[in-house]
Design a protein that fits this description.
The chain has 476 residues and is of the alpha/beta class. Helices cover 32% and strands 17% of the residues. Bound molecules: nicotinamide-adenine-dinucleotide (NAD).
Amino acid sequence: MIRRDFLKSCGALAAGAAIGTPLASAAGLTDPSLPLADGPDTSLNDLTLPIRSLKPEVKRQITVIVIGCGNRGNVYSRYAEMFPDAMKVVGVSDILPDRKDRLGNRHNVAQDMRFGHFREVFACGKKLADAVLICTPDDRHYEPCMTALSLGYDVLLEKPVAQTKKECKAILAQAHKYNRIVAVCHVLRYSPYFIAMREIVRSGALGDVVSIQHMEPIQYAHMSHSYVRGNWRDSKETTPIILAKSCHDLDILRWLIDKPCKSIVADGSLTFFKAENAPAGAPAYCTDGCPVGDTCPYNAIDIYTKQKRHLGVFDLDGNRDPEVILGRLLNPRYKSYARCVFHCDNDQPDHYVSEMVFEGGVTAAFSMEAFSPWGGRRTRIMGTKGFIEGDSAQFTLWDFLTRTPKVWNKKLSDIAEYKGSGHGGGDLALARDFVEAVSWQDPARLSSTIDVSIESHVMGFAAERSRKTGRKEKVK
Ligand SMILES: NC(=O)c1ccc[n+]([C@@H]2O[C@H](COP(=O)([O-])OP(=O)(O)OC[C@H]3O[C@@H](n4cnc5c(N)ncnc54)[C@H](O)[C@@H]3O)[C@@H](O)[C@H]2O)c1
């Protein structure tokens, strides 16, 4: 269905055409006045844009150099294995030789195109591929991005764009100056769930959007892995958590509301993962025979060797044997993941709330929470004619006129290619759109321009200023 037809069909619905009668409980709803029927009304599935295949439509194959061969570098380069006619990895760069060679071998990269530090990629002063994928840590985005743009590369740039507002704006100016494509990895925008939600909002089925409540539940073990023990624990080395984790959410709010954010006020702090909360006798590392290990939900041995969560950082090559994982926790290269959560050098808040006002008075309340049993963003959108509530897997639309809730719950698993594409399918869908954009030299194939991506980052910097000063901050 093309977009115009879709909007038309939603408009008809909004005018009151009743489709089916849902079973309230099956839709996860509790209003006793709802009529009962056989099951949830999933007619939204037919009305929203179909889930696009990951197969790209390209003019020609594009070549890329992967800078940073860790988790994200591997995620995006998988696309080249799936669609070799569309994308080819011709270069790799990583300061860790084993990671560089593992990815280099997988893609048969020539030895002279295997680089250590990203500066080696640019040392020859000319372009060696169509694009670079910048997948280095947060404090190593600015320099390679600025250099790559000046040499004429198109860029897939991991978020956060850079560590300061000034650097973000310099990247924006550089992209304009050299007229290059920059795709910021706001992957949620590319997930079918959020695309469908936004299509419904844009159709007018909710009337005018008045406000949004949005929550990002990080999940307690994920919090301990990434923001207490792991790569993003120190806001100064990386970025404040509102950018490191939640720039996706600010971007999604900006995208759903489709108006610029004018002001923001934020609060939050690190309350729990601190030395003063350490149980008596807890050693520096969980692997040092902790006396309370059996009763601690943050026990690294349990999280990694038994629950087998977040194993991507251990370079296991698929070997999930508990003994091997324990060996990694004892190995100096990975030992920081064995640290007691109360004895880390972390400063990221474990709860963060903010309120935003957008043009026209639309408000959004956002809450990032460490202490939840599950992940998966929760969103409620309040409009003058309807309401949406979703949990990242499905969402329900309430029409105030028909009072018949309708559910969107399309399954990505129905499309084999999407298997293993993280962020609700957004990771590889972004790769597809980037490949198409570079192949056709058409940035409009991306969900967002670099300008809008920077705008949502500016919201994040304003939020952090507000959290620190206690003042409401203008977003500009
Ligand atoms: N879009 C998303 O949803 C998402 C999810 C996770 C991470 N990220 C972002 O992606 C980036 C990478 O995260 P990751 O989880 O892949 O980290 P990672 O640690 O797994 O990988 C980063 C790699 O960069 C390499 N590296 C470091 N310095 C380098 C240099 N000077 N030159 C070349 N290589 C260098 C490291 O050795 C490492 O292998 C971060 O900015 C992170 O915030 C984005």
